[in-house]
Task: inverse folding
């Protein structure tokens, strides 16, 4: 016997971030157990007009990718937020012959703007060279461990103070600091 759980499929990347999707009364209504009657496909032509509720994640993903390519580097140099907003405005007007023109409300605009900025940050991380590794820190070994290893204290390299030039072993609560070589 198989148990089937019907869960609303509102876990898409862009659409799930919209406030009208997150803050709704869906959980108060039980429409998941409805019976769908059979229907015959009529093979009508799909309408050319696409409403804002018919956009998929692929549509929004394409818009975000296109907007990230339109960012003006001169404007980005002076104000990053304004450069991203300008690129998103141009993308909404021109992407796929104006498919999104007039169909993006303020809450969706903020989600898309955040996605454009995240995409730009990810692209910046990929292009920047990684920082060199920091120098290794000196290794601290206790005198007891030196004794267990059979090493005499005289054999341990001593840390010198720069200004005095006098060699000595630095002690911290029973530990000897040895420079790693």
Result:
């Amino acid at each position: 016997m198989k148990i089937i759980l019907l869960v609303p499929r509102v876990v898409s990347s862009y659409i799930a971030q919209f406030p009208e999707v997150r803050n709704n009364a869906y959980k108060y209504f039980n429409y998941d157990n409805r019976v769908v009657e059979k229907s015959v496909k009529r093979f009508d032509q799909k309408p050319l007009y696409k409403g804002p509720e018919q956009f998929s994640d692929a549509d929004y993903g394409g818009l975000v990718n296109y907007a990230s390519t339109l960012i003006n580097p001169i404007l980005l140099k002076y104000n990053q937020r304004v450069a991203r907003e300008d690129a998103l405005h141009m993308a909404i007007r021109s992407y796929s012959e104006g498919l999104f023109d007039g169909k993006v409300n303020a809450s969706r605009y903020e989600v898309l703007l955040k996605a454009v900025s995240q995409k730009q940050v990810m692209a910046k991380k990929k292009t920047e060279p990684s920082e060199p590794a920091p120098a290794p820190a000196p290794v601290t070994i206790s005198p007891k461990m030196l004794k267990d290893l059979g090493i005499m204290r005289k054999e341990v390299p001593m840390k010198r103070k720069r200004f005095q030039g006098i060699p000595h072993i630095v002690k911290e609560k029973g530990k000897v600091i040895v420079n790693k070589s």
